Every structure is written in C-alpha cells, then in structure tokens.
Amino acid sequence: MVPRVAPLRPGRLVGIDVARTVALLGMIATHVLDGRTASGDLTLVQSVAGGRASALFAVLAGVSIALISGGTEPVRGAERTRTVLGLAARAVLVAAIGLVLGGLETGLAIILAYYGVLFLLGLPFVALRALPLAVLAGVWLVVAPVVSHLVRPELPERVYESPDLGRLAEPGPLLADLLLSGFYPALPWLAYLLAGMAIGRTDLSGWRTPLRLAAAGAGLAVVATAVSRLFTASLEVRTALVPYRVTTEEQVLRILADSQHGSTPTGGAWQWLLVVSPHSATPLDLAHTIGTSMAVIGVALVLVAVLPRWGRAGLAVVAGAGAMPLSLYTLHVVMRTPEVWPAEVEGSFGQHVLVVLGTGAVFALLGRRGPLEWVVGWPGRRLRRGRVRPLDATRSSGTCP
After folding, report:
1. How far is CA 175 from CA 10, 133, 157, 196, in A?
2. What is the Cα–Cα distance from 170 to 241, expressed in whole angstroms?
3. Average per-residue pLDDT in the chain?
4. Which residues contact 260 (CB under 8 A, 6 or more apart)?
5. What is the pLDDT confidence band of residue 344, given thresholds at 50, 70 and 90?
6. Rg (CA), the chain
7. Using CA atoms, how far apart are residues 279 and 283, in angstroms rounded to an integer?
8. Nearest to 102 by CA among 375, 333, 326
9. Which of 115, 119, 273, 330 is the most buried (most CB within 10 A)?
10. What 3-state class would DSSP assign to 262?
11. Are the C-beta atoms of residues 157 and 111 closer than 8 Å to each other?
12. 296-317 burial, b if ≥16 CB within 10 A, otherwise e?
C-alpha cells in the first residue's frame, strides 16, 4: 500500500493543479521564447500557447471561485456572504500585487490587475449552478465583444503598458483599460470566468465527466475556428479587415496569427468580430479558447483519474506549481527584470521552468501553501473561521494569476 503523502491532501483535485501548471508554463513560454522563426513564421510554441495559456488561467480562475463557494452545491445564506467577502478581499489583493508588478521593468503585460477585476465581476454569480452559468457564458461571449466594439471608440486613448500604482491617479482611464481596452479586458473575459465556474459546479470525480468535458471542448474549439475560416474566405470580409490592399486568405490568416494585444482594432470594421486571433476577445475567439481550456482541464482530470495512487502522488509533486500559481507567476515576473537572474539569453526558458517546477515540487512535498496564496486567502479564512466548509472547497481552489 502506498503511504499517505502531503501532495494528496483530502479533497484536492490534482487534475486542476496539472491544468494550472500547463497554463503557467504556457504563459512563461510566450514571455521568454521567440514568437517568430528566423524566416518570420510563427513558432510552434507561440502558435499553440499564444492567447490560449492566459485564457486557460481565466477559466481556471472560474473553477477556483466555484470550488471555494461550495463546488457542486453553492453555499447559501450567511456562508455565502462570508465567501463573497473573502473572494472580494482576495480580488483586491491580487489586483494590488498586479499593480506593484506593473511598475517593474519587465516588458511583460502583467495580468494580475485584470484578474482582480475579473474576480470582482464574477461575485454576483456565485449562487448559480452549472447549467445557468454555462448558458450565461454562451450569451456573454457574444454580447460583451459587441458592446466592447461599440464602446471602445468613446473611451480614453489606450495606454499600451501594464497597469501600475501610478495609474491610480487617473481612475477613469485605468478602469477603461481594465474593463475593455487593455491587454486582458475583464468585461469580455468574464465569459472565461463564467465557463470556469460552470465547470467547477460540475462533479469532476472519476474519468467519464472529464472525458466528456475534453471532447466537448475540443469540438467547440474546432467549430469556432471552422466558422471563422468560412468568414475569412470571403473577399468582402478580407477587404474589411485589411482595407489598404487586396489580400489572399493565407495572407489574412498570417495577420490574424499575431496577437491583437487584448481587443480588435478600436474603430475597426465590424467584420473583426468574426475572426479567431490571439488576444482579440471576439465571440469566436472566446469560444475557441474556452474550448481549448475545457480540453486541457478535461484531459488533466482524466489523466489523474486513471493513474494509480502512487502515480497521482508523483504527478501532484511534478505539478506542485499548479497549487501556487500566484506566487510562481510573481516570481517569474520578478525574474524577468534586468537586475534578477537569469539574463534574457537563449536557454533562459529552461531556467524559468526549473525554478517554477522545482519550487512547486518542494512546497507540494511539504504540504505548504504558496506564500502569496496564503496572503490573499487570509481574509477568507478569517471570515470562515470556526465554520464547517465543504471538502472540495477547502483544498481544491488555489489562486490563478
């Protein structure tokens, strides 16, 4: 018999930690590795992780909210009030960490301030069950991009920098950035959070439901891309997207392979809402990346479900980084500053991965929370002190960056 080990804490969904680790490594790869080859083609890593890793983080954030707020059975009454207050405090602290990191010289688009706002936007929906959340996510991924397309031309001019503490002096432009015009706009990204909450409200035990989740996600991603390709095959659509020259479908797809840095061009043609392009927050791109996120989460849960206990224990150590993504994302960002090791040279990706996975493994073996996870979770623990909590809400949450 395999002895009880710290990584296999009762009720913890190791598969969710595996998915978080995949998201964290994908985001690090897009930060550190070159996005283009010497010939100008998109690299394999960028084509796979670009736009999808951050979306996976957002979906997993929704899963975390659902698990913290009761899992398959939403908390009620006074317990719901305490949970919402704890999540609100967590959101504010995550956003504050993001604003501090935004002031560092990293050249990165720091996601945490946006995530804090995203958490706050998700709080009104913690009482909902899986089906209403899934329906609402489907409606939101259509409506929010249209609203964004109409509203963004009326907003203050966008600042192409990560939000930092200095931006607090101009709350209006900062709020516009965080909600609609920034790198990770919280309003359309709420579709990710709602989809993740729907997943977290589902019974994820065993392998059958996760397998159906993975299959549905893969199907959604393929269909969204296929529909977009039908539109971009039209000369009328291509002309609207690139009005200054005649383009073939291949040329347009090459343009769309690049990141849109958060949203479609402000004031651009409405046909931009028909594309699938990294960080474009269009209806079809949101659907595609929700689908890929579902597939990764489902496969990770299936993998854990079919492994023997010793295999799950080993995987929990290897994926220990997924139990402390906030701390390790922050560490990765600090490591990207010029004053901190490693230097930005070829091979530094491996050094980032070694530090992240090694640190996560050590904390997993010791059965310890990440330091920042402990900090942002403290208000919620204080509010729930002395109360009995659902098993899957105590150990399976984590805080996605």
Report:
1. 40, 25, 12, 24
2. 33
3. 91
4. 277, 278, 279, 280, 281
5. confident
6. 20
7. 12
8. 333
9. 115
10. coil
11. no
12. bbbbbbbbbbeeeeeebbebbb
CA separation, residue 368 to residues 6, 109, 371, 382 (Å): 9, 29, 9, 18
State the amino acid at position 114 in one-letter form: Y
**For residue 27, pLDDT beyond 60:** yes
Q: How far apart are CA 26 and CA 33, in angstroms?
A: 10
First-to-final CA distance of the chain: 37
Residue with tokens 């600042």: 159
Q: Which amino acid is at 152?
A: R
When pLDDT is cut at 50, 70 and 90, the band that residue 10 belongs to is low
Residue spans of the domains in the chain: they are: 14-212+289-395
When pLDDT is cut at 50, 70 and 90, the band that residue 295 belongs to is very high
Q: What are the distances in angstroms from CA 306 to CA 163, 302, 309, 321, 333?
A: 43, 6, 9, 21, 35
Distance (Å, rounded) from C-alpha 81 to C-alpha 345? 49
Q: How many CB atoms lie within 10 A of CB 182?
A: 26
Q: CB–CB of 193/118 below 8 Å?
A: yes
Place of tokens 């996975």: 357
342 upstream amide cis, omega within 30 of 0: yes
Tokens of 386: 């002395």
pTM metric for this prediction: 0.94
